[in-house]
Design brief:
With 511 residues, this protein is an alpha/beta fold. The protein has 12 helices and 18 strands.
Length: 511
């Protein structure tokens, strides 16, 4: 059964926001209490948190789909819906997050968090949508869907020293001898199938050592097991080459093994600046001790620090441990204090319209933008008044002007959104008006008159003049002073001007 997993896929889904509520205040002796629908609750988030008690990504291997709870719908009496609960996912220290092959987060440090999937915002209730022009909205906004992301989680162990070498070189025996780790040890190759971590105490310095599964020539081409685990040595201060001086294979020797491992490390890349230490293992064997004496000077000429050790008899282990401790201590002194991953906020520019209009090959037009796409998701297309409100928002944002400049005419096909949430409609230029009022008349709540008859608005009622105004109209000899006409008034004024002649005062007539 698999007990160690260092690379998984996570399907994270934020919770959906709750829908806004459509409600009207109803109390005794208050028949027109006004709108009082509350907003929907916000959906929960999916959050990754570094936890010291977690050492593997095994939980995500068995349950890769994680979804937060949705927010509740708003209530009447101006009560907002309950927020959805966040899903907190513990991950090991050193987890790297990728999306579409691009690294987006490196979680180092206990308590470091990362927002994997954001929950949707709750929709506004009709109480929040009310304004001086929209006294009693008959609609509310829908909650936004939660964010869906496919992430790749990759564990890079946070170890100070890494042991690398051929299979059966004695790496597992060495880490078992210098720490409390108890890896599987056997006399056949590829005994170690997963990296092992051990904590080493050398004087006042405590550090961790990682045992990486054995490398072989051709690992860069997929042979063996070691290359897929080399990510665990990327954070190490130094690499310890564990060379087998007691091998029974006649075509192998420590120098060739070192060159082969260095070649594979070079092909992997990113480890050129790491310090190297050479541990000549198995000197407790007669042939192993002779081989170590033979190659020690050659390795020192190459600039390596060489230590002759035996994991079985523990000979030379103390010197090796203190050598590793000195490198770790020097690195810690030179390194700056660890900082958690910083969250950088990049607000949208003030002059950014937030959308683009694209002309498609078939003559249709596509409107792209996070804001307009969110507005479409919030709109209840079963409510005509909500559709009119969406049209007003798009017009105010400048979408209609942009479509006109792009060449759209009445009847052109316009698409907003993408996928199953894409909205396709025939564009009809609107006139400047509110969602509830057009040409000075009202319509029923929940409806928009523009969708039924945009241009054939009923005529406004004629003005009713007061008695004083009617008396003034008689002075101009209007045929029907109760409903004066502009042309008749102008003719009456002209006749009076001829009668007055030179005594005619323009200002007096105007007054």
């Amino acid at each position: 059964m698999t007990t160690f997993v260092d690379r998984v896929q996570l399907f994270a889904s934020g919770g959906k926001g709750g829908d806004g509520c459509v409600s009207v205040k109803r109390e005794k002796f208050k028949p027109l209490g006004g709108p009082d629908g509350g907003n929907g609750g916000r959906g929960g988030d999916v959050i990754l948190v570094v936890d010291s008690s977690v050492t593997t990504l095994l939980d995500f291997h068995h349950s890769p789909h994680r979804k937060a709870t949705s927010g509740h719908q708003g209530f009447g009496d101006r009560k907002d819906g309950v927020y959805g609960e966040d899903v907190i996912l513990p991950v090991p220290n050193g987890t790297v997050v990728y999306e579409n092959g691009v690294q987006i987060a490196d979680l180092v440090g206990i308590g470091t968090t990362f927002l994997a999937a954001r929950g949707g915002m709750g929709g506004l209730g009709n109480n929040s949508l009310a304004s001086s022009k929209r006294r009693a909205p008959g609609f509310a906004l829908l909650g936004e869907p939660g964010e869906d992301r496919i992430l790749t989680l990759e564990l890079k162990s946070v170890a100070d020293i890494a042991l690398v070498g051929f299979p059966s070189a004695g790496k597992s025996s060495l880490i078992a001898a210098i720490s409390a780790a108890r890896p599987k040890i056997a006399d056949y190759p590829f005994t170690t199938l997963v990296p092992n971590l051990g904590v080493v105490q050398a004087g006042d310095t405590r550090f961790t050592v990682a045992d990486v599964p054995g490398l072989i020539p051709g690992a860069s081409e997929g042979k063996g097991l070691g290359l897929q685990f080399l990510r665990h040595v990327e954070r190490c201060v130094a690499l310890v080459h564990v060379l087998d001086c007691g091998t029974l294979e006649t075509d192998r020797n420590p120098i060739d093994d070192l060159d082969a491992i260095e070649n594979e490390l070079a092909l992997y890349g990113g480890l050129e600046g790491r310090r190297r230490i050479v541990a000549l293992n198995k000197i407790d064997l007669p042939d192993g001790s002779a081989m170590a004496d033979m190659v020690e000077d050659q390795l020192k000429e190459r600039g390596y620090d060489v230590y002759k050790v035996s994991a079985a008899s523990r000979e030379g282990l103390q010197d090796l441990m203190y050598a590793m401790a000195r490198l770790v201590q020097a690195e810690r002194i030179a390194a700056k204090a660890d900082e958690r991953t910083r969250i950088i906020l990049r607000p949208t520019a003030v002059d950014d319209s937030g959308f683009t209009v694209q002309v498609n090959g078939d003559g249709s037009f596509s409107v792209r933008g996070a804001k307009v796409y969110r507005w479409v998701l919030q709109t209840n297309f079963k409510n005509a008044e909500a559709i009119g409100y969406l049209a007003d928002r798009l017009a105010q944002l400048g979408v209609e002007k942009a479509l006109y400049k792009a060449g759209a005419v009445a009847g052109s096909e316009v698409r907003i959104g993408s996928g199953i949430n894409e909205v396709v409609f025939d564009w009809e230029p609107t006139i400047e008006a509110g969602a509830e009022q057009l040409a000075g008349f009202l319509h029923r709540r929940g409806e928009d008159s523009r969708l039924e008859n945009t241009w054939n608005a009923p005529e406004r009622e004629k003005d009713i003049l007061s008695d004083e105004e009617i008396a003034e109209q008689w002075e101009y000899k209007v045929a029907d002073p109760h409903t004066p006409r502009v042309e008749e008034i102008a003719e009456a004024v002209a006749e009076d001007a001829e009668e007055l002649g030179d005594n005619y005062d323009d200002n007096a007539v105007e007054e």
